[in-house]
Amino acid sequence: MPRSRHASNALPFSPTPSSAGRRQFLGLAGAGMLATLLPGCGSDDSGSQLYPQTVAMGQQAIQQAIDDPAQPVAAISVAMLKGNNVFWQQAFGVSSVPNQTKATTQTRFNIGSVSKLFPALAATILQDRGLITLDTPIVQYLPTFTMLSPEFAKITTRHLLSHSSGLPGTNSRNLFTFAPVPGYAADTQSELANTHLKHLPGELAVYCNDGFTMVEQIVLARTGQSFASFVQENILAPLKMTNSSYLTAVPTDGSFSYPFAQGKQYQEFVNAYATGGLSSTPADMMNLAQMFLGGGVFDGKRVVSAEGIAQMGTDQSTGLLINPSPEWRWGLGWDSVQQPALQAAGVLGWEKDGGTAFYTSEFFVVPKAQLALMVTGNSGYDARKLAESLVLSALKEDGTIASLPAKVSTTAPPAASGPGIATAGGIYGNSDSPLQAIANPDGSLQLNQWDGPSRAWKQLGAYQYRSDGWWWNGTDTASYRFTVASGTDENGNAFSYRYLMKRVVPGAGYAYLTLPIGQQLAPLAALDNAWQQRLGTQWTLTNDSPTAVPIVILGNEPAFLTTLSELPGYVLYGNTDLRYQLFVPLADDRVGMSVKIPGNFGRDLYEIRFASAGSGATLTLGSSIYTKL
């Protein structure tokens, strides 16, 4: 789901950036930045133990996370399925920190971007009924949908569900709140009318929450039902997911896990329903898993076509024009339809992770082994590591695999003579914070990252070229290299993008993940007078709900506008919540997106518009309006 205003997203298997902003929550699952939590007691509602070794290992690992004195986690809930048998379901910790209420298997958690499987299912059901086709441009269903780039008319539902639409990223306005705020999807569509695409539809895949939000509008247009109502009637009810719902209003019943921050308990509302708004339990999610394993059938009744389930589990990345990280195998709704750790064991698995401002989740389905897992809990634990470890343990315990795969190395190989990197030096932009690459006289590579609070470059370290073709630093388990993606796009325009690639070993350590973390930017003509006069100004957000998480928790930190002396012609705007992006001037009153990065570090990009109001200037970023301080 989105990330922070402040949460984590579900990056498909992504490492958490050094500091996540709200913009990127619903996707990249990692340690939450807002929750101050206390440990609690566990509760056991386990059934018969088909996998005693796996269950014992999981119980120990989860209890360690609950009891961690450095960062205790309030509650974690887990369920595992073999065939039609939920052989383990258990909740640990407390659902309410002040009251020390024990979490149970009926306690609901906000599951973040795991929710993306439901708009994918909804779209598949609409296709089954002849109301849409996945490859028809969505303007045929939404004639009011428009954007500033004419290519918007080529966006299909398949693009929306596979992160390849080219929509800017995440509408951050009222994304996470402490009271329900209606109208998020309509607000997102209105916002998109005032912005350009960040890439051509189908050109690349970059995590995009707004694509799933637009499915809400398609469901409404084609059925007359709200998305939440349609999912309840056509998915949740048939699957008997009685402890699952979208929090469109303050709930009057049900057991919930409550965030506890700054000495106060809250209830979190995720108003982006399709992209990350479902509240559920691992037990309910095992019903969903049974439907996936049954090819669309649950409890003897067909919910969705077998072809639809197969389409969701089909690799959607094969036709991408720009894809420097081929291990990212996007499905429809799924982050990966070839989960890397399972792939290392020779087993095909589907994975979806999710994060909100306060929660982190992982959902695995292993079709041939008829195995599934859901784990969810307050942020602060490594959900991917736990999920990979449990699923691989179960596969070994039942004999599906003879042994666990070998873990990949995080130790630098021998030094080697490196290629010349003078042309790779310079500034690399992204959706997080600019990076600087410098070719040192001794042949090493110096990497720096721009630090917003200090407004200066922070040294990441000097990296030496090694025999595996990557640059390593003795104290960093990650390694780096450069790659160039070039070709001709569908409009006949030649392109060449140089990316700084980062290789990490996430989760339980069985597979590498490579991801482009920045795109090299060339200097532009000096900023004109209109933009020079804006440099150094600060702006405060004015149109979020007073219950918005960043307003309540972070205090509505001002954002500032500046530039980098090392990269003439660009405008830099942000704060610790927005993160720090480089923008290209499009006119005296507008700046646009400067990068085109697959994966996750080009995920939440924006355009900025300036206008004069009666009492002063306003700055509009997405649908968020700021006034000058």
UniProtKB/TrEMBL annotation:
Superkingdom field: Bacteria
Domain Beta-lactamase-related: 72-387
Transmembrane regions: none
A matching Pfam family: Beta-lactamase
InterPro entries: Beta-lactam-related, Beta-lactam/transpept-like, Diverse_Enzym_Activities, TAT_signal
Name of the molecule in the record: Beta-lactamase
